[in-house]
Structures are given as C-alpha cells and as structure tokens.
Amino acid sequence: DTGVSQDPRHKITKRGQNVTFRCDPISEHNRLYWYRQTLGQGPEFLTYFQNEAQLEKSRLLSDRFSAERPKGSFSTLEIQRTEQGDSAMYLCASSPLAGDPTGELFFGEGSRLTVL
Amino acid sequence: AQSVTQPDIHITVSEGASLELRCNYSYGATPYLFWYVQSPGQGLQLLLKYFSGDTLVQGIKGFEAEFKRSQSSFNLRKPSVHWSDAAEYFCASGGSYIPTFGRGTSLIVHP
Hints:
The complex is a heterodimer of chains A (116) and B (111).
Chain A: E1 5-7, E2 10-13, E3 19-24, E4 31-37, E5 44-50, E6 53-56, E7 65-68, E8 75-79, E9 88-95, E10 106-107, E11 111-115
Chain B: E1 3-5, E2 10-14, E3 19-21, E4 24-26, E5 32-38, E6 44-50, E7 56-58, E8 64-68, E9 73-78, E10 87-94, E11 100-101, E12 105-110
Parallel strand pairs in B: 2-12
Antiparallel strand pairs in B: 1-4, 3-9, 5-6, 5-10, 7-8, 8-9, 10-11, 10-12
C-alpha cells in the first residue's frame, strides 16, 4: 500500500501526558500537512512542511504542539501536557508537487486522540 | 483570507433521488476548488477538483460539480443517490498552499 500511513490509529491518554503521532506520506510527495478535526467540523489546518522545512507553524494551537519532519520523509506531531480539549482526530496529508499551489491533498486515515 | 462555507449541516435524501450539496467560497484570485468525502472513521478522499477551464467537472462515484464565479459557488451534484453515498462531504479551496475546508455536510440516505 503506497498511501499515507498514520500511527497510532487510536490513542487514549491521561491529561498531562505527552503524545506523539507519526505520519508516513506517499514517498514522492514533497509537502506534508497536519490537520485537526473535531466532531462535526471540517479539518483545521495546523502546520505544513515542504521537504524538511516547516513553512507554516503559526496555526499550531499552542506551544504545547510541535511537529518535525527531520529528513523530509516521515513526520511527527507531538502534543505535550495534553488537555481534554485536545481530544480530536489528527489528520496527515501529503501533496505531490513542490511548486504547485493547487492544494490537492492525499489523506491518511487519521489518529484519534482521547484525553481522559 | 480565503474561506469556505457549507450552509447545510445535514441533508437527507431518499435512495435514488437527486442530490445537491452547496458550497460557497471567498477568495480573491481564481480559486482551486475541491470536494472530498469522508466515511466514518476514515480519512478524506478526493471526489473531484476544479482548477480552470470547463466549469462543470466530473468526479468519481458519479458526482459532478459546477463552478459559478458570479455566485462564488461550487455545488456538488449527483443525479441518483445510492445508500453507500451516506458520508460527510467537505468542500475545500486551495491556491495558497494551505487548503481551507468547510465544516462539512452530513448526507443521510433513506431507503
């Protein structure tokens, strides 16, 4: 399967714990995006990378959120000191063309976070 | 800043009936517009996209959408809905490297 892969699919954690999600994009895709989706809402943009460069991170929800893509391949999204309001689906998507602003995204199946 | 509005939170149709889901966008330049579908517990799948040219675009699963610049709309249509079309539908606009999504419309299909 050469689609976008996310791990874990489900994570249950206690408030105050740190969590990390991993995303493996389609291999030839330069751009990688993280979105958050809460119940009844559309995906909300968090951050994106072009290769290993993080080009937009001002919309990460707080300084507890951080993302990396160290070698321009897989990416991780970390949430420190989780809060109940962080409970959501975290979606990763990749996009194939470095210079194309068209924004067509290929999504993974998401990582669902539940904070108790 | 670009924005996308989907005015209908839920739409209920009978199987075999026609469908139209509404989408309005706000974007200064020529928008790149998309419709995605999300089944429960799944990621989003692209149905169709509009970049330029013919304003009526065909997508997968028998869906089509029409771009109307004068109305800032990109409505999704299907002539005959199947029970398997029940899902969440999202309209999105691109063109700035950061696609923006609407809140979605939940499609309920009655037998």
